[in-house]
């Protein structure tokens, strides 16, 4: 296995659908009180700018969504249904909206802490930890107050995406789920056959 390296900003300086596919198999790393909570990205969704009715950027730039109009490689965290946080990473050149939603991880390190943050038993089934965007954020302790606008390309950041040479294998594209607008577009990408992807 190659030594892991933090993905550079240029990685995100592309169209969300391309970034989304290339994020599969990479590692999301969260530093929490000296511990590394790590999961392999196995499911993502791409969201575009003004022309994507399902995107938060569809109606223009606001205080809430300004991160996805900014430079690429920054965390965009939002709160949904009054109970869940969701983690996205900005794409495209500055001024052009776009992001990738991280939908599911395969837990790799820090599983007992993830279980505790999820309110589960220490040795809960790994699939219960990070399969779904809300679970993912809860298991890694990701919140809007702490992580929104965090630079994931900074080696000193508390939240990073790393490359460790993992071969992603076969990638499947499906319509995005959990949305009403532009739901038919095949912009959800997942590692085919991976048991940690979310339902739907």
From TrEMBL:
Keywords: DNA damage, DNA repair, Glycosidase, Hydrolase
GO biological process assignments: base-excision repair
Enzyme class: hydrolase
GO molecular function term, any single one: alkylbase DNA N-glycosylase activity
Enzyme nomenclature, EC number: 3.2.2.-
One Pfam family in the UniProt entry: Pur_DNA_glyco
HAMAP family linked to this entry: 3MGH
Family: Belongs to the DNA glycosylase MPG family.
This protein's name: Putative 3-methyladenine DNA glycosylase
């Amino acid at each position: 296995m190659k030594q892991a390296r933090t993905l550079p900003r240029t990685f995100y300086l592309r169209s969300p659908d391309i970034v989304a596919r290339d994020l599969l198999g990479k590692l999301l790393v969260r530093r929490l009180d000296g511990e590394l909570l790590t999961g392999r990205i196995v499911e993502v969704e791409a969201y575009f700018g003004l022309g994507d009715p399902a995107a938060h950027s569809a109606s223009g730039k606001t205080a809430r969504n300004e991160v996805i109009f900014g430079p690429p490689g920054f965390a965009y965290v939002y709160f949904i249904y009054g109970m869940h946080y969701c983690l996205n990473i900005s794409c495209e050149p500055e001024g052009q909206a776009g992001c990738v939603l991280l939908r599911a991880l395969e837990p790799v390190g820090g599983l007992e802490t993830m279980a505790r943050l999820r309110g589960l038993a220490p040795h809960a089934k790994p699939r219960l930890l990070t399969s779904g965007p809300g679970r993912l954020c809860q298991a890694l302790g990701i919140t809007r107050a702490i992580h929104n606008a965090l630079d994931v390309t900074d080696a000193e950041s508390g939240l990073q995406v790393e490359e460790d040479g993992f071969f992603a294998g076969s990638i499947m594209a499906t319509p995005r789920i959990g949305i009403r607008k532009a739901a038919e577009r095949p912009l959800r990408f997942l590692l085919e056959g991976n048991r940690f992807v979310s339902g739907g």
